[in-house]
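Internal QA ticket QA-208
Title: Verify multi-chain structure generation after dependency bump
Assignee: T.L.

Test input:
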Amino acid sequence: MKAAREDPRRRLLRRYADNPILTAFDWPYFINTVFNAGAVRLSTGETVLLCRVEDCSGISHLCVARSQDGITDWKIDPHPTFMPDPDKYPEEVWGVEDPRVVWAEELGMFAIAYTCYSQRGPGVSLALTEDFREFQRIGNIMPPEDKDATLLPRKIGGRWALIHRPVPGSGRAHIWMSFSPDLKHWGDHAVVLKARRGAWWDANKIGLSVPLIETCDGWLMIYHGVRMTPAGCIYRLGLALMDLEDPTRCLIRATKWTMGPETEYERIGDVGDVVFPCGYTIGDDGDTLNLYYGAADTAIALATGSVRELVEWLYENSLPGDTGND
Ligand code: BMA
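Actual output:
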C-alpha cells in the first residue's frame, strides 16, 4: 500500500525504509506478535529494546532485543526475559504489557513502568533493573483501570513523578501525574493533559506514548490520541510541552497530529491502524530521536526525527494559550 499523502508535515517523523525492524519471524522461539517496546541506549552505545511479546495464548511477556546500531542485527534473548509472575503478583495473571523504561540516575537503575493485566483490568506496575537480566519488582502501584505509564527520570521537587492514564467509569480518559517519596506510595494525583472533545483527532481518550523528553524549552510529551470511528479506532501521535520545573503544567499543545498510520504494516495487523511508541533513544548528536513503535499490534517499526524540529513545529502548530485542557 502506497503512503497515502505526501504532506511534509507528516515527514517530521521519518519512517525507516526497511520497516518493520522486528517481527515474529525474527524471534528465536514461537510467538504470535512483537510490538510496543521500551527503549534505552547504554553507555556502550548499544540499544536495548524491552519488547512486548504476545504468545499464542494471547498473553504477553517481555523480551530483550539488543543491537549496536539500534536498527539491524538484533540479538534477541533466546527465552522470555520478564514473564508474568501471577503466584506472587496476581495482577499479572493475564500478562505484562507496554513497558516504558527510563534511566533513574538517583537510583542507579533503569525503572520500568508496565501494564499488569488481570480479571480486574489493566493496572500499572513498576520494576527496576541494572542489566535487563535481573529485575526487582516494586509491584502494582496504580490499580485498574490504569495504563500508559512512565516514571520521570529524575525527582521533581524531591519526589518521584509518574505519568499514567486512569480510565474513569464514564467520561473521557485523560493523562494524569502522581507523586511519591519512595516509588510505592503515590498521591497528589493531577490531570495534566485532557482528551479533547467532539471531532478532534484526540477526543475522548489519550495516553502517554514514550517517556518525557527533556529539552531546554520543557518536557516534550509524545502522546497518542484514539479516534473512535464506526470502522474502529485510529491511534495517532501528538505533541505537548510541559513545564520543566512543574511538569503538571502544560505550556503548549499542538492542534494537529504528528504521525498516524499510513503504511501497510501500520494499517494491517492484529489491531489495524495503530502506531504505538513506548520507547525512544537519542543519537550521539544529542538531537536525533529514534522512535520505536508498535505497528498494528504486530511488529516493531522505527521512525526518526529531530527533537529540535519537533519542538519548533510544536510552537508553530499550537494556538497561543490553548493547551486543549478545557
Ligand atoms: C492500547 C494498548 C496497547 C495497544 C493499543 C492498540 O489500549 O492496549 O497495548 O497497542 O491499545 O490495540
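Spot checks passed. The two ends are 38 Å apart (CA to CA).
Status: verified.
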